[in-house]
Specification:
By secondary structure, the protein is of the alpha/beta class. The protein has nine helices and 13 strands. It has a nine-stranded mixed β-sheet with strand order 5-4-1-8-9-10-11-12-13, with helices on both faces. Strands 3-2-6-7 form a four-stranded mixed β-sheet. Helix 1 crosses helix 8, helix 6 packs across helix 7 and helix 8 packs antiparallel against helix 9.
Length: 304
């Protein structure tokens, strides 16, 4: 890697959300007005930011997580879980007037389709001041991960600080809706799925969408094409990386797994092809396991 010795663990700062995933397995996702008998209930630690932090920690990074939670049992569960993974949570702060993030998820057994509803929480009240307070950690980082799904002011502050301190910024561009806007910036790596790429750029084909993402400042881009391949692009051109076939269990956390492994590998090697390969390998493992954070592979489990 570029900024520290090869035998030292990279330092990764993750600025993002935490959610507790409340999941019910079902044969069919309920439609409006329906009340159906479902299957097993499971509860997992999740949230795009926290998932990425766990993936990076298991990949061998020293990880600092910047986020917010409420003064409730879910907040205590979040802190305990992240600390157990060896993640520095000194910037994972309690907001007394907010609740910890919660996601209600319906997951179809056979088709693998899912629907989720995410509650308004401390993630949405995430102050930009919290990011500024963590500026010393950002200055020490080899790379910084962030995502949409936190307060807009906090997201923009991450962009500003990474540009100021010339830090590699890895953005998982999700969640996205018709109102989401990606400002021009300096993005070392941008990771998103095909539908989101088209929505974010207002383009009608993937080639045009990827060109627009580069125009807005993305040096490297990885686009997930369903769950069978990745399209990756930089100044050297665009290529395809297959995702290894694995027994499918669930999708929660799998894109965060891809983002973490690809970002870390790219930072260490400077090789986008290798980054896409490692991201695909890790993602395949995550798809075959239960639970967003529980599904993240450790470095020893991958064929490096």
């Amino acid at each position: 890697m570029h900024s520290r010795e090869q035998n030292q663990a990279p330092v990764a700062v993750v600025v993002g959300s935490y959610n507790t995933d409340l999941l019910i397995w079902c044969d069919t996702i309920p439609t409006r007005g329906q009340s159906l008998m479902g299957g097993d209930f499971e509860m997992f630690c999740g949230g795009r930011g926290a998932n990425c932090a766990v993936a990076a920690a298991r990949a061998g990074c020293k990880v600092i997580f910047i986020g917010a939670h409420g003064p409730d049992l879910f907040g205590k569960m979040a802190r305990d879980r992240l600390a157990t993974e060896g993640i520095d949570i000194s910037h994972f702060v309690e907001l007394p007037s907010s609740k910890t993030g919660v996601s209600l998820v319906f997951h179809e057994r056979a088709a693998g389709a899912h629907a989720a509803l995410i509650a308004t929480s401390a993630n949405n009240a995430f102050p930009a001041a919290l990011v500024r307070k963590a500026q010393p950690a950002i200055r020490q980082a080899d790379l910084v991960f962030t995502q949409f799904g936190i307060a807009r002011e906090a997201f923009l502050e991450v962009l500003r600080l990474c540009k100021h301190w010339k830090k590699r910024l890895v953005l998982q561009a999700a969640p996205i809706d018709a109102s989401t806007y990606l400002p021009n910036g300096n993005y070392y790596l941008l990771v998103l799925d095909q539908f989101d790429a088209l929505t974010l750029t207002r383009q009608d084909n993937l080639d045009a969408a990827i060109l627009e993402l580069h125009r807005r400042g993305a040096e490297h881009v990885i686009v997930k094409l369903n769950y069978d391949s990745l399209s990756f692009s930089n100044s050297a051109g665009r290529k395809i990386q297959p995702i290894p076939t694995a027994k499918f269990v669930q999708r929660a956390g799998t894109t965060e797994c891809l983002t973490a492994w690809a970002g870390i590998t790219l930072t260490m090697t400077g090789d986008l092809s290798q980054a896409a390969y490692m991201g695909a390998e890790a993602m395949a493992v995550s798809l075959s396991r239960h639970g967003a954070q529980d599904s993240m592979p450790r470095r020893s489990e991958l064929s490096l």
